[in-house]
Amino acid sequence: MADGTDQKSSNQMWGGRFASGPSAIMEEINASIGFDKKLYAQDIRGSMAHASMLASKGIISTEDKDKIIEGLNTILSEIEAGTFEFSRKLEDIHMNIEARLATLIGTAAGRLHTARSRNDQVALDFRLWVKEELQKTEGMLTALIAAFLDRAEENADTVMPGFTHLQTAQPVTFGHHCMAYVEMFGRDRARVRHAIEHLDESPIGAAALAGTGYPIDRHMTAKALGFREPTRNSIDTVSDRDFALEFLSIASICATHLSRLAEEIVIWSTPQFGFIRLSDAFSTGSSIMPQKKNPDAAELVRAKTGRINGSLVALLTVMKGLPLAYSKDMQEDKEQVFDSAESLELAIAAMTGMIRDLEVRKDRMRAAAGSGYSTATDLADWLVREAGLPFRDAHHVTGNAVALAEKKGCDLADLSLEELQAIHPDITNGIFDVLSVEASVASRTSFGGTAPSEVRKQIAWWRGRN
Ligand code: ARG
């Protein structure tokens, strides 16, 4: 035809009631083989389990089952060797594999699709894929947490300024700051583990949406495929994509954590802050400004968050108006998940490398920790503890001391005892013990506080769980 449409042959898998084949545009919008070929291993594994179950229940013969398994093994090696020819006419991975099976083993291939539909088949393949991806993510988060635990241990005593509003607030330790990220990525990993538990039910056997009259054994296929049990409602089974949404929402939260860390790395590595130096392996130079060392890896980790969040919104939007059960809209689930999985893996790996390699500039952190009146709260606390002032009054007196230091252009610890006594007569020499950043940090021994002794306890707790 003039528009390039091949309407001569109808689809060989479902074309029975169609007189002509799809138009070229129809084929293009309908086909998913371009991306769902990624599911080939899961599809073959699922078909093998299904065929074995059919044979053991006497639904197909053992000879047919053996031929099917052998043919599927051949297909697996063809795909892995790169010799398999994927065809867009055959729409998706399921039909590409089944059509090839028919070429290889003849009529027995047609018995494989007994008591199943592509609806439960795709739900199975995709679940298996997401489950494996979650397991991989769990391992990668464990490696990232381990990198942070090492840095935290080395820097349990390294004083740095703690910030609120990105203004110097109170001194903390770099070890404590690292452990904040251990908490975040620890929660991400817990979410990953929950998601694995949630999705650990086998969809195969739900068939198109209503189940099947064949005497299948869904517990058998569930077990063979490593699932805890089969799903309990065939309608929900083929219309549910919660496992994909859960993956994307976990990925979005994790990417958000990675992005906040990336932002800190960008700030800390500026000459103005100078808290860290990135390794050459995780930075780049400028083609025009020879002095520059750019934190490109951190910037790209920060940017990947946009894509991952976008995928979550995209799939939520695809799903939000769908009536039960399966609709072809759901074919749009895979690219979002595949793209996010790739981005998240890369972001976690890059961040793990950066954290492992970065050089901590303790002198710069220490100098910054001492400026900006970061021990003002310690002065106020001293007035409460040693001079019996109510906290509000102590806050006011401290404010006067800060104003004086600001006027003189010095730090609180540089004010003389006379100057401090002029502000409040009860101040004694003991005040200088708390005005140092080391004393300030060491005093914060409350559970979860920044004192090196407390940080070491938290490191030990996490080491026992990583
Ligand atoms: N390629 C489809 C998908 O990814 C497979 C399921 C198609 N089912 C159907 N009844 N058309 O969703």
Rg from alpha-carbon coordinates: 31 Å
How far is it from the N-terminal to the C-terminal residue, by CA? Answer: 63 Å
- Give the helix/strand class: mainly alpha
SSE ordering: HHHHHHEEHEHEHHEEEHHEHHHHHH
Task: Count up the helices.
Answer: 18
Spatial strand arrangement across the major sheet: 1-2
Basic shape:
elongated
Percent of residues in beta strands: 5-15%
Which compounds are bound in this model? arginine
Secondary structure: number of strands: 8
Main sheet summary? 2 strands, antiparallel
| Poorly predicted sequence stretches spanning 5 or more consecutive residues | 1-7
Estimate the helix proportion, in percent: 55-70%
Topology summary:
Blueprint: H1 24-30, H2 33-36, H3 40-56, H4 62-81, H5 93-105, H6 118-154, E1 159-164, E2 167-173, H7 174-199, E3 201-202, H8 218-224, E4 229-230, H9 234-239, H10 242-268, E5 276-277, E6 284-285, E7 293-294, H11 296-319, H12 333-357, E8 359-360, H13 362-370, H14 376-387, H15 391-408, H16 417-423, H17 437-443, H18 452-463
Parallel strand pairs: 3-4
Antiparallel strand pairs: 1-2, 5-8, 6-7
The structure holds arginine (ARG).
In short:
By secondary structure, the chain is mainly alpha-helical. The chain has 18 helices and 8 strands.
Question: How does this model look, in words?
Answer:
The protein is mainly α and 466 residues long. The protein is 60% helix and 5% strand. A two-stranded antiparallel sheet has the order 1-2. Strands 3-4 form a two-stranded parallel sheet. A two-stranded antiparallel sheet has the order 5-8. Residues 1-7 have low confidence and may be disordered. The structure holds arginine. Arginine binds at residues 32, 36, 92, 118-119, 122, 326, 328, 330-331. One of its GO terms (biological process) is L-arginine biosynthetic process via ornithine. It is found in: Cytoplasm. It is an enzyme of class 4 (lyase).
